[in-house]
Amino acid sequence: SEPLFTPKGENNAVFVVTQDYLTSDYENIGLQLSSRFGEDASELIPLKEVQNPPDLSVAMELDRKSEFSLFIPKHRDMANSLINSFMGVPQDQLQDLLATCAFVRDKVNPQLYNYALSVALLHRNDTKDIRIPNFAETFPSKFVDSKAFQQAREVAKIIPKTDRTRTPIIIPKDFTATDLDEEHRIAYFREDIGINLHHWHWHLVYPFSTNRELVDKDRRGELFFYMHQQIIARYNCERLCNFLPRVKRFSNFREPIPEAYFPKLDSLTSSRAWPPRRANMKWQDVNREVDSIKMTITDIENDRKNIEDAISLGLAERPDGTMTPLTIDMLGNMVEAGILSINRAKYGDLHNRGHILAAYVHDPDHRFLELFAIMGDTAINMRDPVFYRWHAFIDDLFQRFKSSPAVPPYGRGELNNPGVMVTGISVSDGGSQLNKLNTFWMQSDVDMSRGLDFSDRGTVLVRFSHLNHQPFNYMINVNNTGAAERTTVRIFLSPKNDERNLPWQLADQRVMFIELDRFVTPLQKGAQKITHRSDQSSICIPFESTFRTLKRNQTDETNENVAFNFCGCGWPQHMLIPKGTPQGMPFQLFVMLSNYELDKIEQPPSTAQCQDDASSFCGIKDRLYPDRRAMGFPFDRPSTSAATIDEFLTPNMAVQDITIQFSDMTVQNPRNPQ
Ligand code: CUO
């Protein structure tokens, strides 16, 4: 797959092309181009003639030098048509697929091409296990300070290829703002490359498409709710670690947005800087002929009202006017909203419209010929504080539903696990103190050469800083006097106190609990100890899956052989736990051993290459979501009987106070080349 994703000018592998494959700009010099780039190619890839050239009339409407947004309906149509072209190549005819890709690649917008091809490769049966290059490497401009690219050119020009791994370009930790802006205190979370890659990948696995085959996945709407709910919970935990209050939801759509954001990113596609947003800008009606968007604030207010009515009634209206009981899955699809929405005419396009209105706040009528801002791009929108205000609003809708009569609180029978008693829990990261976890800064290298479009690139490393922690173990003591032979272990974490340093009411704390892990384990009779490693978390993918990194002492030449797990969906391991504070911040660790009879999903094991990595946030490819309970169980809905977490506990649950201490020191990733 690699050459299909690399920009023109790449010299590791070259397609032998005929004139059909080139855009009209280059058709007269096509064969010269082919031989020029072929001069020092490591591999020549002959192509078949394209049997049925795809109709690119829709996809080619997007300028090749423009940005691409999944939130813009017209762009979604273009992506659909291109995805369908790739999906339409007959199964197991990989040479035809390759020829089709090469035929399409230089004719359409590169980002549209990358998205449509990635979706198709992930969903075609014959390409499911193919490697998709890391998106941060293909489009580094979405992740790295724009200043770095000038430096990259210099490095590529001046430093011989063999020495480049010794001279990484250092990206400072604080490149978008200073602490004068208090929101900048959590920029390390918003701008984390791994977090943004996870979000981009999630939307790739759960694409917007009119092709039901790609969209209609088990509990998709509920997962849209849950994965984004956990993002907000994690953001709020991180805010408390930095002495900031929980994020305020964006509720009055006509009020100014207090947060500003200046991304310092350039789009290499459009050769323009991503537009910034000043403080206190307001949503305005959007009317941009160029993007075929006409959208008013009243439109989105109507969507909101209709959805709020459905939540209060506990009923949704079908297109034929009949009513049906609302479920969380239905609500997720209705809010997001794609083709699975029960009634798009009635419930509209609430979530996507919010992204659009936020993304065009700086140029709603295109008078300044500006492109959309980063809220319009799933690979970078988590960098902007307004993302969290918007998704806090979206989450509030779901929480209202979860608190409504349509969702009865859990009874003891659902929470308890007969005969199973948790007698103690602890965590240890090998340090001298039990129940104390440690965080720090780490510097890691990423090779961004794949996304640079000048030739003779070799490796160009970027060294960036990110949070990390000492890996740790959970120890759970259990006494089993019942008949249970297996159990699902559910592990969550929440700050012990709120922003005023007061203990939580459960009603507030339940939405602060972040999932750390969920796994099924056998139970014996009597007393036993379950030990589990933090790096096996069901929400995370390992560091090597987030980034393809060079291994120590590895040379540029062997880099290509590093296994890159194509299943890039998953929270980055290095962000598993919140930062804590230098003084040590109190948290509560919650463990539940639930009744497996009520949890289990019987299905054949996955054969996909990524198996069930990160299944809590990403599901499992081509399988049912591997847990029968509501996502977020047991905290997905309020309790009517318990006011505090202690009152909520049944014998199969336990809570332990722990501390997370942050040390302001930077260590090198041991995988960085020396
Ligand atoms: Cu993931 Cu709003 O859904 O960005």
UniProtKB/TrEMBL annotation:
Residues 384-395 form the Tyrosinase copper-binding domain. Its cofactor is Cu(2+). One of its GO terms (biological process) is melanin metabolic process. It catalyses: 2 L-dopa + O2 = 2 L-dopaquinone + 2 H2O; L-tyrosine + O2 = L-dopaquinone + H2O. Keywords: Copper, Disulfide bond, Metal-binding, Monooxygenase, Oxidoreductase, Secreted. One of its GO terms (molecular function) is tyrosinase activity. GO terms for cellular component: extracellular region. Its EC number is 1.14.18.1. It is found in: Secreted. Transmembrane segments: none annotated. Belongs to the tyrosinase family. This is tyrosinase. It comes from Hepialus xiaojinensis.
